[in-house]
Specification:
InterPro entries: Nict_dMeBzImd_PRibTrfase, Nict_dMeBzImd_PRibTrfase_bact, Nict_dMeBzImd_PRibTrfase_N, Nict_dMeBzImd_PRibTrfase_sf. This is Nicotinate-nucleotide--dimethylbenzimidazole phosphoribosyltransferase. Its EC number is 2.4.2.21. 46% of the residues lie in helices and 8% in strands. The chain has a domain of 269 residues: Rossmann fold, CATH 3.40.50. The chain contains 17 helices and 6 strands. β5, α13 and β6 form a beta-alpha-beta unit. The structure holds alpha-ribazole-5'-phosphate (RBZ) and nicotinic acid (NIO). The site of nicotinic acid has 12 residues, from α13.
C-alpha cells in the first residue's frame, strides 16, 4: 500500500470512552457546567482524538508553511509578481514576516517547505526543499498538476506531519505561501461545495472590481474546462448549489461516512483528480499534512482559505480526518465561510484577517491549548471544597449525583 492509502487507513474514529470521561470531568470542574462554551466541546473532541482524558497538552506546536507557485498567475488574477513567493520564503527564514512574529508570540516552531516554488531554492535552516515542480501549469489551459505530481506533493505533506510529530510536536498548524493561490483555492472550493465561482472567489491580496470579475471568470473557465462546474453554477448569478453537492454538513466529529459529492451530484470518487485539475502543489501538500496529523491523532489547526480548500480535499479522501481539525479563524475570503460550513467546522477567531502564512492558526493556538489545560489544571468541586449546584457540602454525595 502506498503512503497515502496507508495514512488514510490509519485514521480512526474518535474514542467515545475518552470523550465521555472528558464530558464528565467538565461537569465536575469548578465552573458552571457549559460555561466554557465551544472550548468545552473542543476539549471533549481532543480527548476523543488522543484516546485519553485529559488529552496531552497541544504543545509544543509547529507551523509548516507550504510554498508553491501557480501557472494561473499568468491570467492576471493577483496584483503581485510571482517572485514574491520566493522573496517571502526568504523573509520567513530571516524571521521578518507576520507569521514569525505570531509564532514567536506563542512559542511555535516555523518550518517552510518548498513544494513548488518557481525559483530554485537552496536548503537552509528552517527550509525543507521538497520541490515537486517549479510551479503548476495554468489550470485554464491544462490540468494544474499531473496525477503523479499531486500524489507526490500529498506524500510530502504526510511526511512533514510525521517528521514534526516524531520531533515531539503535539499540535500542527497549517501555513501557506503562493502568489495566486486564492484563485486555485476558489476553484477547489467551488468544485467540492458545488457553489458557483462568484460566491467563493474573493479579492485575495487586494484587487479592484474589474480584476475581481476577471478572477471569477478565470475560475469559471478552469472549472468548465475540467468538467467541474456545478450544474446549478452554470448560470452566472445563480447562487444555488445542486442538492447533492449542498448535502448535509459533514461535521467535524460526525463527518465519517458522509462523502463529498461532485457538483453534478455524483460522489467525488476521485478527489485527487479535482486536486490535480485545479489545485496547487501547496494545497496537495497541505491535504497530506492534515491526513498525516489525523493519522498521528494530533490536532491540526487550520489557517484560512488555502488550508480550508486543502481540508476539502482531505475530507473527500477521508471524512474522519476532520475530527482532528480545528478551524483556527474565519478568513475574510467568502469561500472560506462556505468551506467551514461544508466541513462543519467552527472558526475560533474572527478578525477579518486575509493574510495566510499560518497567521490565523497561530492566533487561535492559545485557545486550543487553553481548552485542554482546563482539563489538566482546574479543580473539581470536590477537590476544591466548593459546593456544587445542589448546595451539598463538598466530600458528600450530592443529590444531583444520585439522581
Ligand atoms: C507580501 C505578501 C505576503 C503574503 N503572505 C501571505 N500572502 C498570501 O497572499 C497570497 C495569495 O493571494 P493572491 O491569490 O491574491 O495572490 C498567498 O501567497 C498567501 O499566502 C502574502 C501575499 C503578499 C503579497
Ligand atoms: O484568508 C486567507 O487565508 C488569505 C487571504 C488572502 C491571501 N492569502 C490568504
Amino acid at each position: 500500500m502506498d503512503l497515502i492509502e496507508q495514512t488514510i487507513a490509519a485514521i480512526g474514529p474518535l474514542d467515545e470512552a475518552a470523550m465521555a470521561q472528558a464530558r464528565d470531568l467538565q461537569s465536575r470542574l469548578t465552573k458552571p457546567p457549559g460555561s466554557l462554551g465551544v472550548l468545552e466541546e473542543l476539549s471533549v473532541r481532543l480527548a476523543g482524538l488522543a484516546g485519553r482524558c485529559p488529552p496531552p497538552l497541544p504543545e509544543p506546536a509547529a507551523v509548516a508553511i507550504f510554498a508553491a507557485d501557480h501557472g494561473v498567475h499568468a491570467q492576471g488574477v493577483s496584483p503581485w509578481p510571482q517572485e514574491v513567493t520566493a522573496q517571502m520564503v526568504a523573509n520567513f527564514l530571516a524571521g521578518g514576516a507576520v507569521v514569525n512574529a505570531f509564532a514567536a508570540q506563542v512559542g511555535a516552531q516555523v518550518t517552510v517547505v518548498d513544494v513548488g516554488v518557481a525559483a530554485p531554492l537552496e536548503d537552509a535552516p528552517g527550509l525543507l526543499v521538497r520541490k515537486v515542480a517549479p510551479g503548476t501549469a495554468d489550470m485554464t489551459r491544462a490540468p494544474a498538476m499531473t496525477a503523479d505530481q499531486a500524489r507526490r506533493a500529498l506524500r510530502i505533506g504526510i511526511e512533514v506531519a510525521g517528521e514534526l510529530v516524531a520531533a515531539g510536536h503535539r499540535c500542527l498548524l497549517t501555513g501557506d505561501m503562493g502568489i495566486a493561490n486564492t484563485t486555485a483555492s476558489a476553484a477547489l472550493i467551488a468544485a467540492f461545495t458545488g457553489l458557483p465561482p462568484e460566491r467563493v472567489t474573493g479579492r485575495g491580496t487586494g484587487i479592484d472590481d474589474a480584476t475581481h470579475r476577471h478572477k471569477i471568470d478565470v475560475v469559471r473557465t478552469a472549472l468548465t474546462r475540467h468538467g467541474l462546474l456545478a450544474q446549478s453554477a452554470r448560470e452566472p448569478g445563480d447562487g444555488r448549489t445542486s442538492p447533492a453537492a449542498a448535502g448535509p454538513p459533514q461535521g467535524a466529529a460526525a463527518s465519517a461516512g458522509s462523502p463529498a459529492s461532485t457538483p453534478d451530484g455524483a460522489p467525488v470518487s476521485d478527489p485527487l483528480r479535482v486536486l490535480a485539475a485545479v489545485g496547487g502543489l501547496e494545497h496537495a501538500a497541505l491535504a497530506g499534512f492534515i491526513l498525516g496529523g489525523a493519522a498521528a491523532r494530533v490536532p491540526v489547526v487550520l489557517d484560512g482559505v488555502i488550508a480550508g480548500a486543502a481540508a476539502l480535499v482531505a475530507a473527500a479522501l477521508c471524512p474522519q480526518a476532520m475530527a482532528a481539525c480545528v478551524a483556527g479563524h474565519r478568513s475574510a475570503e467568502p469561500g472560506h465561510t462556505a468551506t467551514v460550513e461544508h466541513l462543519g467546522l467552527r472558526p475560533l477567531v474572527d478578525l477579518h484577517l486575509r493574510l495566510g502564512e499560518g497567521t490565523g492558526a497561530l492566533l487561535a493556538l492559545p485557545l486550543v491549548q487553553g481548552a485542554v489545560r482546563v482539563l489538566h489544571e482546574v479543580a473539581t468541586f470536590d477537590s476544591a471544597g466548593v459546593s456544587d449546584k445542589s448546595g451539598s457540602p463538598p466530600g458528600r454525595v450530592s443529590r444531583s449525583a444520585i439522581d
